[in-house]
Amino acid sequence: MSKKKNKRIGTVYSTNPDFDYQYESEPEAELLPPQQQKLRVSIDRKQRKGKEVTLITGFVGPEDDLKDLGKLLKTKCGVGGSAKDGEIIVQGNQRDKVVDLLKNEGYSQTKASGG
Asked: Which residues are in the SUI1 domain (predicted)?
């Protein structure tokens, strides 16, 4: 069963075989310009079997833009990672490098924290 079917607005019965049910759609977050993004870069070891990752949080915008930024950071750092649920994970302790890269990309309110 697809996720779409779980987001039905109400119960509808139809005998029309061509009936197309309208699903409730979640509004995408509007992308803030880089200089308004308040990104936080930290090192995280929790639930990662002791391995360090660089965690970037605070991104406001569509999931596609988050993934694009994540891909840029992973490529520039030469490591793997993921971007989902409003956060970017870059493998290893890359905090200082990530902060510099984000500031060079125009994310002027980026701050390193924790870890």
From this structure: 46-106
Query: Could you tell me the fold of the domain covering 28-112?
Result: Translation Initiation Factor Eif1 (3.30.780)
Extract the tokens encoding 96. 């200082």
Per-residue pLDDT at 2 exceeds 50: no
Residue written as tokens 């890269």? 101
DSSP 21: P
The pair of structure tokens assigned to 54 is 């660089």
**How much is the pTM?**
0.72
Token digits for 1? 């069963």
Q: How does DSSP classify residue 100?
A: H
DSSP 43-98: EE-TTTTT--EEEEE---S-HHHHHHHHHHHHHHHT--EEEETTEEEEESS-HHHH
Pairing of strands 111-112, 40-44: parallel
